[in-house]
Amino acid sequence: MSTSRRTVLAGAAAGVAAAGLAGAGTAHAASGAKPPARELFGRLADGTKVYRWTVANGGTRLKVLSYGGIVQSLEIPDRRGATANASLGFGNLDDYVARSPYFGALIGRYGNRVAKGRFTLDGRTYQLPVNDGPNSLHGGDKGFGKQVWDVEPFSRGSDRGLVLRRISPDGEMGYPGTLKVKVTYMLTARGAWRIDYEATTDRATVANLTSHTYFNLAGEGSGSVDGHTLEMAAARYTPVDATLIPTGELARVSGTPFDFRRARTIGERARTPHQQVLYGKGLDHNWVLDKGVTTVPGYALTLADPGSGRVMKMYTTEPGMQFYSGNFLDGTLAGTSGRLYRQGDGLCLESQHFPDSPNQPSFPSTVLRPGTTYRSTTVHTFSAR
Ligand code: GLA
Q1: Is the pLDDT confidence value at 66 over 80?
Q2: Which of 215, 343, 348, 354 to mutate to test ligand 1, by most ligand atoms within 8 A of the CB atom?
Q3: Any catalytic annotation for residue 268?
Q4: Which of 162, 288, 306, 342 might form a disulfide with 236, Cβ 3.0–4.6 angstroms?
Q5: Where are the membrane-spanning stretches (predicted)?
């Protein structure tokens, strides 16, 4: 059994077993486990080639771009074994460069918002690009999801995957320190998708990496995710102000549309008139996962589509989960299969530290210092019922 699989089992035995990961430690590769391969996807304006890598294992197929570490496609089977691309995206590079609302993107250095794009660390104040109303969002206007990554494939035992590396220079997007980043996308023999993030710095800085994949378990372009159900192990969430910056309070979800402790239909919750829902134009909040910060991935949530039977479970080391119900999709973008994406046609589940942590001393810290390593792991398991 590989270290990674042992880790997942330790963190979330019951759920992982249910999703078919348990017992996947045999040496033989499951069908579909070809070595990762690449093809040219496009060229940036300066001529840089962008490749699309395909990784397939255990019934899951992931397509990843060297631009932005973008998950361009995530194919998973339904209850009859028919596969669909369960992630929103584009079929060409130009759309990703010109108009992507972070479809599938690797987010850094800081996932979600930093108030006024400003924070103070060790007595120095840093100004980040303000790119979302008065705030800085997802690492600034040229964050990790818009940078070119070095990509290396690997096959380890029955696992298949990609290692993405990049050195973010000191001062990039206003953040201090040279950040050496390594992100691993891995598919296991049972088709689970694991992401490991690692980073080191040469000066004190902040780090909060995540993946901005938009899920639609019925298949991208098939319409709304309103009928999906979500169950999330979170008794609290972080309420926000009108600019979506946390107020600092960890509020109880009981009696609010934020209560997903039992599986709930998303459409109904995103339409409940509640001041917080109004601020987000739907759900666009950070849930405080009951498990807290952990060194092994612990159970976070179950997303299910009753129509196709597809089920995704997420396990993470992170203390928070940004659940964004695709509120800003407005029917102006044509996705991978050529259909327009309208409001709520996909949703994001971003494992993370809480938004604006650099300005919120009571939140778990996102400070990274030289000599220590930032580590974060999130596992997605797929099954059908
Ligand atoms: C995150 C934010 C949302 C929105 C999307 C991208 O999920 O919380 O408010 O900015 O990214 O459109």
Answers
A1: yes
A2: 348
A3: no
A4: 288
A5: none
Averaged pLDDT for residues 164-177: 98
**Confidence label for 68 from pLDDT (cuts 50, 70 and 90):** very high
- Mean pLDDT rounded to a whole number for the chain: 93
Enter the tokens of residue 234.
Answer: 């979170």
Distance CA 179, CA 185 (A): 19
Please give the distance, rounded to the nearest whole angstrom, from the Cα atom of residue 26 to the centre of ligand 1. Answer: 40
Cα separation, 101 vs 383, in Å, equals 28
Residue to mutate, 324, 328, 330, ligand 1, most ligand atoms under 8 Å from C-beta: 324
- Ligand 1 atom closest to the Cα of residue 280 is 9
Distance from the alpha carbon of residue 282 to the mean position of ligand 1, in angstroms: 11
* 135 ligand 1 Cβ < 6 A: no
Domain hosting residue 125, numbered range? 3-384
Compute the distance between CA of residue 102 and CA of residue 354 in angstroms, rounded to an integer. Answer: 19
350 as an active site residue: the answer is yes
- Our answer on whether the CB atom of 107 is closer than 6 Å to any ligand 1 atom is no
What is the domain-level CATH number for residue 363?
Answer: 2.70.98.10
Cβ atoms of 169 and 71 within 8 Å: the answer is no
Give the pLDDT of residue 32. 54
Beta bridge partners of 148: 67
The finding on whether 110 has its CB within 6 A of some atom of ligand 1 is no
Decide: 349 in ligand 1 pocket, CB within 6 A: no
**pLDDT value of position 33:** 74
Pocket test for ligand 1, best of 130, 137, 238, 244 (most atoms within 8 A of CB): 137
Please give the tally of structural domains in the chain.
Answer: 1
Question: What count of other Cβ atoms lies within 10 Å of the Cβ of residue 48?
Answer: 11
The rounded distance, in Å, linking the Cα atoms of 115 and 234 is: 24
Distance CA 314, CA 22 (A): 15
Q: What is the 3-state secondary structure (H, E, C) of 225-289?
A: CCCCEEEECCCEEECECCCCCECCCCEECCCCCCCCCCCEEHHHHHCCCCHHHHHHCCCEEEEEC
